[in-house]
Amino acid sequence: MGATGPQLFADDVAMDVRDAYRELLKQGKSGPEATKKLIRDCREEIEDIDDGPVFWLALAATQWQLGRLAMAQEWRIPAGAR
């Protein structure tokens, strides 16, 4: 759908990332587990030239807001596991 304004979470991809991350935490996943699952499930968005940066910014912003900002080493997935 796109964005309805200039704010990060006015973008559909950003809202989806935020909501999915929060839902995974509610289901009992740890922060790193939720992050890895989102990365695996959102490959198409991540690889998109427009949506990719939005995905990463939304994930980082959501983690930060929840006090769970992950270090890059915690969520890297080896190329063979993608």
Index terms:
single chain; about 80 residues; mainly alpha; 5 helices
Largest sheet report: none
Look at the helices and sheets and give the structural class. Answer: mainly alpha
Separate helix tally:
5
Number of strands: 0
Mean pLDDT score: 84
Low-confidence stretches: none
Beta-strand percent range: under 5%
N- to C-terminal distance:
26 Å
Query: What would the principal axes of the Cα set say about the shape?
Result: globular
The percent of residues in helical segments reads 55-70%
Structural overview:
By secondary structure, the chain is an all-alpha fold. Helix 1 crosses helix 4. It starts with 11 loop residues before the first helix and ends in a 7-residue tail after the last helix.
Q: How are the SSEs placed, and which strands pair?
A:
Elements: H1 12-26, H2 31-41, H3 43-47, H4 51-65, H5 72-75
Write a brief structural summary.
The protein is an all-alpha fold and 82 residues long. The protein has helices at residues 12-26, 31-41, 43-47, 51-65, 72-75. The longest helix has 15 residues, at 12-26.
